[in-house]
Amino acid sequence: MTQKIRILFLSANPWTTSRILVDEEAREIFEKLQEGPHRNKFELFKHAATRPIDLQRLLLLYEPHIVHFSGHGSKRKKLILGGTPGRGKTVDPQGLAEVFGLYNRHLRLVLLNACFTREQARSITEVIDYSVGTGHGIGDKGGVAFAGAFYRALGFGRSIREAFDSAKAELGLTRMPRTRGIELFIREGISEEDRFPQRHTSLETLKSLHLVSRTIEERFESQTTLFESPITNQFKSRMRTEVTVYCSQCAGSSAQPGG
Asked: How far apart are alpha carbons 43 and 64 in whole angstroms?
């Protein structure tokens, strides 16, 4: 069974901060994903009032490929998560990047849909393939609109870069205010054309495919030895080529992990 791409939606909206549309943003992401032909390849998990002590537990529990944060960032360029009941607690930027780096075997994208997160997003791409952040304040409605357009494009099989450009274009089309500072950061060596809804074929699976192809060929050889002719030789050659191409395609698809 093909493993789905898991999105972990984290939010924090302490009473000591202004109220934002975190629930509407989660709903928008879910609904926009449903519009695309790849909708069944995604799973969305939500966790509200996220505290710093929750992060590693949730990363271990869900093993997400995408972490999406909806909430606030301080003018000191730190994320604000939940602290004591009703109050916020800022998170050390370097510490957050280090935590995400521990899970980069599966985690590929961190989207920080909060104000003043540009530097945080940049530092995250030292350990994670993709991240999104903004260097300015971002409007509440603009953040929701950006998230919806971004995930809709992913649901249609677009690359991270294409999904980001699509979301930015939609914000410009609707003249959404306070959204110009949103930026995409990509880790060095990562292709911008990478299609995110890919599937990872493990090394063990590849070995099995090659073993099966060799077994088929050996059996075919043993059963056709008594009836050698130009026609059978031509068929055997064609079969080898098709099996080799199939295994090569599988090997190519394993280059970018999706689960």
From this structure: 9
Residue in the structure block whose two tokens are 């500072």: 181
**Total number of domains constituting the chain:** 2
Distance CA 167, CA 79 (A): 23
3-state DSSP of 182-237: EEEEECCCCCCCCECCCCCCCHHHHHHHHHHHHHHHHHHHHHHHHHCCHHHHHHHH
Q: How far is residue 97 from each of residues 122, 194, 244, measured CA to CA in Å?
A: 10, 22, 41
Q: Which of 20-24, 80-84, 166-170, 240-244 has the lowest mean pLDDT?
A: 240-244
Same domain, 150 and 218: no
**For the domain that residue 80 is a member of, what is the CATH number?**
3.40.50.1460
Q: Give the pTM.
A: 0.76
Q: What are the tokens at 50? A: 């996220």
Domain encompassing residue 21: 5-186
